[in-house]
Design goal:
By secondary structure, this protein is α/β, with parallel strands linked by helices. The protein has 9 helices and 10 strands. The longest helix has 17 residues, at 242-258. The protein is globular and about 65 Å long. It starts with 11 loop residues before the first strand and ends in a 24-residue tail after the last helix.
Length: 304
């Protein structure tokens, strides 16, 4: 007898971002996180990076029209419950993403939540975007966003606030919100004033919410921004409010950093795999896993 499948389509989410050949950040981090969050991840690739744990040695950009076409292909057939951005790289790609999101009712133009992670700064703090690209982020991308999630280096590049204390973090949130996003999350991981905690700040234009968490003694934090944003996006796709989705994201990223691991010779990634360990950890290993468990009929329990 042929067995019926029992799958139910999960919430559908899209990442518009670049690749990381080392698997620590970019679309790899988004998809890994979304699998742990029970959503189906789709991809619109903006750039292919030649990258490992030590750094990025080359970048190959995807033509803007191809980025837009990927977004439209997903929307036309599969549909979406939320979307997020990562590395957008150029004015042409940012413009194309904005136009595609308008056509697809993503963000302020429709009812699909849109999380913008404005990847604009390297780990050294140097800008990854030209001045023209930063301007388009401010003028076109941010006003379409449900939530923007800059780190402190990106805050400095986008609104000129060098955040060194909590007061400046609040001021940065105000200035970012004035650019048009519905909500702002100023991530505090780089705020060295906080020696034993990491405080992120959520602002909706009226109310501030501080989200404190522990600070860990590790340099294995590659992909932390993508992972945090991906969990928030998954929460929104599951129907959570912004506040609830951000709070869930905060709890998730704390454990992802807690379970970060060394990889290669440089900075290892944060790990969303902690959320799957309760399932996989009960199995003795792939070779001993009984793939016929639960089967009925003449092949039940049969091994090669």
């Amino acid at each position: 007898m042929v067995e019926r499948t029992v799958g139910v389509t999960p919430p559908r989410v899209l990442t518009i971002a670049g690749t990381d050949s080392g698997g620590g950040a970019g679309v790899a981090a988004d998809l890994r996180t979304w699998a742990a969050c029970g959503v189906h991840g789709c991809v619109a690739v903006t750039a292919v990076t030649v990258q490992n744990s030590v750094g990025v040695s080359d970048v190959h950009l995807i033509p803007a029209r191809a980025v837009a076409a990927q977004i439209q292909a997903v929307v036309d057939d599969i549909g979406l419950d939320a979307a997020k951005t990562g590395m957008l790289a150029t004015v042409a790609i940012i413009d194309a993403v904005c136009d595609a999101c308008d056509q697809a009712a993503i963000g302020s133009s429709g009812d699909i939540p849109f999380v913008v992670d404005p990847v604009a700064a390297a780990s050294t703090g140097a800008s990854l975007l030209t001045d023209d690209a930063l301007d388009v982020v401010r003028r076109k991308l941010f006003p379409r966003a449900t939530l923007v999630t800059p780190n402190l280096d990106e805050v400095r590049l986008l609104v000129g606030v060098d955040v060194r204390d909590r007061t400046a973090q609040y001021e940065a949130a105000r200035r970012l919100h004035a650019l048009g996003p519905a909500h702002v999350l100023v991530k505090g991981g780089h705020l060295h004033e906080d020696t034993d905690q990491c405080v992120d700040l959520l602002y909706d234009g009226a109310e501030f919410v501080e989200l404190p968490g522990p600070r860990f003694d590790t340099h294995h934090t590659h992909g932390s921004g993508e992972t945090f944003g991906a969990v928030i996006t998954a929460g929104l796709a599951h129907g959570l409010s912004i506040l609830d989705a951000v709070q869930v994201g905060k709890r998730f990223i704390i454990d992802a950093v807690r379970h970060s691991y060394p990889l290669g010779k440089g900075n290892g990634p944060v790990s969303p795999l902690w959320a799957t360990s309760s399932w996989w950890g009960t199995r003795p290993g792939v070779r001993n896993y009984d793939v016929t468990a639960g089967m009925t009929g003449p092949d039940a329990g049969r091994t090669a």
